[in-house]
Amino acid sequence: MKDYLPPIEAALDRYSGTFDLPELFLRSMRYSLLSGGKRIRACLCLACCELMGGQAEDAMPFACALEMIHAYSLIHDDLPAMDNDDMRRGKPSSHKAFGEANAILAGDGLLTMAMRLLCDVAGQKAAKKAILQGALEMAAGQSLDLNVTARDLASLQHIHDYKTGALFRAACLSGAYRGGANEAQVDHIRAFADKLGLLFQMTDDLLDQEKDEAEGKLTYVTLLGAAETRRRIDALAADIRGIMGAYEGEAAAYLLALTDRIATRKA
Q1: What's the whole-model pTM score?
Q2: How many domains does the chain have?
Q3: Is residue 208 within 8 Å of 219, Cβ to Cβ?
Q4: At what angle do helices 100-119 and 5-16 cross, to 10 degrees?
Q5: How many angstroms separate the CA atoms of 63 and 42, rounded?
Q6: Which of 259, 120, 143 is nearest to 194 (CA)?
Q7: Tens of pLDDT along 66-125?
Q8: Which percentage of the chain shows pLDDT scores above 90?
Q9: Where are the beta strands (DSSP E) in 55-165?
Q10: Whole domain around residue 149: which residue ranges?
Q11: CATH number for the domain including 35?
């Protein structure tokens, strides 16, 4: 099975290290950007590019921009004014390591670094627009999560379609556009991304069930119950297998395997 992680990590290190910036500012950005993680969004971007017949390396700037945007969102999400999390991926969160003000600036810097990276790619308007739209929708989802109380399944799904689903769509669509997808293929990839984003959120809710219940948080599990949430996860995975049935090759196999890993993940 193809492993996209090593080239993604190398590219993130390379791209983020090329900017001539104050040492603390750059170090705080790289602290969060290079702290590991599954790199799901970057992997989706590269795999969708290859699925459409493109080369993964051609989509690497988009994949890295997505990871920069995701890292900035996590820095801000961890802040005391939002989720107030002191740890991230086994390390102190950015605001614990560098202070709140520097963490805010690190997030600002990563978002701007992503935009700067996209500017260096000639053309590719549709792929760039998909990423910028995803970043905007993700921030909108954070706003909804802070300011709107979900009361039923429809309102909960609306929030997570932005907060979680937006960057999944951005990753898949930008990769597909870079790979030369036609209109019908774009529709396939959008459907795949939407289902995968929902599947990811539902498995996340299953994993955080005890914590969310203790906090009185409304989730798919608290609304539907664990058994029904699991049934819907399995149904979404089956739908994705149906979408991917139209494609062959290593990239399709990778996306199916990634779907299975997300659906059955334990952490």
Answers
A1: 0.95
A2: 1
A3: yes
A4: 100
A5: 4
A6: 259
A7: 999 999 999 999 999 998 999 998 899 999 999 999 999 999 999 999 999 999 999 999
A8: 89
A9: 87-88, 91-92
A10: 5-264
A11: 1.10.600.10
